[in-house]
Amino acid sequence: MQSRAPLILALCLSLAPAGAAAGAWLRAEGTGFASWTVKVQDDESATAYSTLFAEYGLNPDLTVGLDLGSDEEGEHKALAFVRVPLSREGLHVAFELGAGALDEGAALRPGISVGKGLDLAGLGGWWNLDTRAELTQGGTELAIDATLGVAPWEGTKLITQLQQGGPLADPDFIRLEGAAVWQVAPGRLLEVGLTTALKDSEDFGVKFGIWHEF
């Protein structure tokens, strides 16, 4: 299975070079989004972990949300966050501040997101760069997610994301993820994705998710 992972992921990405709207965009006032995601990684114990993410637009300049769950290292998180716009001219830029608990204890998670819509061969698309710092008593960890996406037809999103965590000079992990998201009912979408390690991460993983827009 591990030997096939890069080939499978490359096929997925060649069919789906895309990404989903992320932190640079705020939610419209009175609208929300929630997702529940489960990932199974290819290791000796076939470890599974899940995350619950939700956000809501309180007004045009303020989105609030929750980020709960665990990661591939078995660490848990429970964070509430607020997001405000810094720019909507040309580039979308937003600042986010999360607070709550990680395995290390109390934590703050400030971040900056930058994104822009694209026209990719006549298809609507976007790119987004999320940068976050996790501040705990144990120190500071950095995370960067670079996303590229396209919507080939209504109700479908194709996503490619490069994820990095840890110090910039010597990252704890670098991974590549490709996913397809499609609408199955009004406001309800399914996500299926594949991930592969580029540095110090699981060799291969499969992700399933349910999205709900309201």
TrEMBL record:
**Assigned keywords, A-Z:** Signal
Signal peptide span per the entry? 1-20
Q: Which domain of life is it from?
A: Bacteria
The name under which this protein is listed is: Porin
* Organism phylogeny: Bacteria, Pseudomonadati, Pseudomonadota, Alphaproteobacteria, Rhodobacterales
